[in-house]
Amino acid sequence: MLKKRITISLGVLLSCLLTIPAFSQGQGITLNKIIAKVDNYYVLKSDLERTYQDYVAQNQTPPAKCQLLESLVIQKMMLAKSEIDSVFVDDKLVDNQLDSRMSYMIQQFGSEKNIVEAYGKSLEMLKSELRQQVKEQMTIQKMQSTITEKIKVTPNDVRKFFNAIPKDSLPYMPAEVEVGHIVRFAKITKEQKDELRKRLLDLKERVQKGEDFAKLAKEFSEDVGSAQNGGDLGYAKRGAMVAPFEGAALKLKPGEMSDIVETEFGLHLIQLVETRGAEYHARHILLRPDYNRLDLTDPTSFLDSLRTLIVADSLTFAKAAKLHSEDKGTSDAGGLIRDPESGSSMMPMDGSMDYSLFMMLDSMKVGSVTVPMPYRTEDGKSAMRILYFKNKVPPHTADFKTDFEKLQNIVMANKKNRAIDDWFRKSVGDVYITVDPEYNSCRIFGTSQESAASSGGN
């Protein structure tokens, strides 16, 4: 069935989009044979093999290669249709996502030098390759959003779905927990701050003596996203940058440099390039503290005092998190940690959970708050945090009231799959699809390779 096959492929497609795009490493096998074409977009055999190996590397059972190929063809079809339908992604959004991915890669590899050695390519070349992949991924995601943006789910939809499930076939739900945390970051020591200030002042003096700011930024700035462009941040609207940075930049005249500016990202030396109406163009050199040498004394003491108030019922955990947690992603929600896939505050207590968190909760009682504990954020920052075990739902057979949010997500996913199914049926004739004869047995879109190829362009 076409509908069933496309639904499976969408699951594969989404899993591919959530991973960081891979580069071809110097020692890898090069398989550049074109195995499918959708208008001017190509699927290479290396794309298929890499996608398959990504599942293996993550200890997941890979889908059949025909399903993987179909998902890759679907991606290319969305790209081709985005051009026809004028669905584009803003370049600034692409650049922001690119900077984020590059920063994550540097954290994973330990340094820029390690990345260059691993792939045998310069950072400029890698970034260029990654940018195209990021842009394509964001375009595909925007196409999916465009197709499904008007879909709504009502409580009645959820009830009908639940009532249609035979009572003896209701799924068994794993244990779930609701956990909050309050985070306080380690503070840079006076010694470290003085060291970074001295280095930036030395760089400022070198510029004042005639050296090029951009060249020094490229060599010394630890903001990877802008360093490759000489520290250039491009034009920014007022309010786009953090307040200390923007305040310092707007006090400058074109060509002038700021004093040392401290923000949550580190210490900056800023040079204003020019202003244009409500926008300004600046570049900077950023130096960050060594997160392994930061002082955890103050955050530990602060959280310990905060915990005392919470345990004594003098302050609720949610209010304490909103007022004092430095984790911006959770503070507004009263410190509640959300499941990265579902977005729900209820998280399955199983193998998908961080192991250290799982072990901690396994020994805690609902309602309890831990003492301050060391914590390392996803971007590598050192911190301390206290955990609050708010709620636990034991394993159970699916229930309409208890599992309403999950059931709602399933109904929404089903509706989106049907919408995209309809979109494929209507759009397949708008593009020209060919698949290499080697994959004749793969019935792309539920058809043989020959009929799939002939359907395009008619």
UniProtKB/TrEMBL annotation:
Segments carrying the region annotation (Disordered) are: 327-346
InterPro entries, A to Z: OMP_Chaperone_SurA, PPIase_dom_sf, PPIase_PpiC, PPIase_PpiC_CS, Trigger_fact/SurA_dom_sf
What domain of life does the UniProt record list for this protein's source? Bacteria
List each coiled-coil range.
none
Q: Name the PROSITE patterns on file.
A: PPIC_PPIASE_1, PPIC_PPIASE_2, PROKAR_LIPOPROTEIN
Signal peptide extent: 1-24
Q: Matching Pfam families, A to Z?
A: Rotamase_3 (PF13616)
Could you identify this protein by its name?
Answer: Peptidylprolyl isomerase
